[in-house]
Write a structure and sequence with these properties.
The chain has about 130 residues and is an alpha+beta fold. Helix content is about 10%, strand content about 20%.
């Protein structure tokens, strides 16, 4: 999630407060807060382009880990899903384990490395 004000990727889910937050959550919008500028805004739990991929239905996290089918203990028709070899996933953010038939796509945040202002010279040619 990117902040609409400063375009930082350092955002987190914010707590719902009041009637307005509850109303917008009926439409799938969740409150977010930017850690860089402190702006509070609303956004979808999962971006529209990634809804077809496997994601946590509780928190919307797309960065999941594959786990053993035996690790999933909550849900409907668990025995049948294990027997049919459904893929099992674990969400690191909320620790939920679940089955899903949606395709898996690894989605991770981009990491920008600082660009050096001057190239590092190991030999100074002026001191010869």
């Amino acid at each position: 999630m990117l902040c609409p004000t400063c375009h930082s990727s350092s955002t987190r889910r914010s707590q719902r407060r009041g009637f307005r937050d509850g109303f917008w959550s009926l439409f799938g919008l969740r409150p977010w807060r930017c850690r860089t500028c402190g702006e509070r805004f609303f956004g979808w739990r999962v971006p529209a382009g990634y809804v077809i991929y496997v994601h946590c239905s509780r928190c919307g996290n797309l960065d999941l880990q594959r786990v053993s089918r035996d690790r999933v203990v909550e849900g409907v028709f668990i025995g049948m899903q294990r027997m049919l070899h459904f893929p099992a996933y674990r969400c690191d953010a909320c620790r939920r384990r679940f089955f899903s038939l949606r395709p898996y796509r690894r989605i991770a945040a981009l990491r920008h490395e600082p660009v050096p202002s001057e190239p590092a010279d190991s030999v100074n040619l002026d001191q010869q």
